[in-house]
Design a protein that fits this description.
It contains five helices and six strands. It is an alpha/beta fold.
């Protein structure tokens, strides 16, 4: 699931817009009844968030009252290196969002342009490898169900091959590995246009639209 803030891509790690906050309320009204009560459809034991402000705010606004722990994970960040998709230093986020556990965030975050941040490069190879890495991480966790609050580009091209409009969500089961790759299967009740019905139904191939290599700047 995701929530988008603004079309100004030059704003570093932006907060949610007023519209984004309204969309979070729609997400809350739709999904929270399915994960609470005596017979929940999903027994959620953990909420994993990309360490970017808009995803953290989305998670807290939609699920902050549930008493479920929040954990930040750099593997779920967005693909591009534009300012809007580049995170903030973890120390500042810790003071801003004390409800979230940042202890296990990769120390290289938010770097994704230097050799140290190579695993987060905006390339097809790096993004698809990162998609498999986060799925393997989910597979080995003990919780019966986990909510992940991430970003449309990474979820579509690197993990699920499905579209996600603002604040919409999809539900997947993790299957056994096939030839070394972790496979997922979407549940029927979100398998068309998402849980809120806001997303495109069409599927895309993993890696679609991603570049093979980072283009080096041309120096005069």
């Amino acid at each position: 699931m995701l929530t988008i803030t603004t079309q100004d891509y030059t704003i570093p790690d932006p907060e949610l817009s007023v519209l984004g906050r309204s969309q979070c309320n729609s997400l809350k009204q739709n999904l929270v009844p399915k994960i609470t009560g005596p017979n929940p459809e999903l027994e959620v034991g953990l909420i994993i968030v990309s360490p970017m402000r808009r995803t953290i705010e989305t998670a807290l606004l939609a699920f902050g009252d549930l008493g479920i722990p929040f954990e930040a994970h750099a593997g779920w960040q967005e693909n591009s290196t534009q300012p809007c998709d580049t995170g903030s230093p973890i120390p500042s986020l810790k003071s801003e969002f004390p409800q979230v556990n940042f202890d296990h965030v990769d120390p290289v975050y938010p770097d994704k342009t230097s050799p140290s941040g190579k695993k987060y490069f905006n390339t097809k190879q790096a993004i698809m490898a990162r998609g498999q890495e986060v799925l393997r991480d989910l597979k080995q966790r003990k919780e019966k169900a986990i909510i992940v609050v991430s970003h449309s580009g990474f979820l579509r091209a690197g993990v699920t091959g499905r579209w996600y409009m603002n604040a919409d969500y999809r539900v997947f089961d993790i299957a056994d590995q096939d030839e070394g790759n972790v496979k997922i299967q979407e549940r029927e009740w979100t398998a068309k246009e998402g849980g809120l019905g806001w997303s495109f139904e069409e599927r895309v191939e993993l890696g679609d639209g991603l570049v093979d290599e980072i283009e080096e700047p041309v120096l005069d």
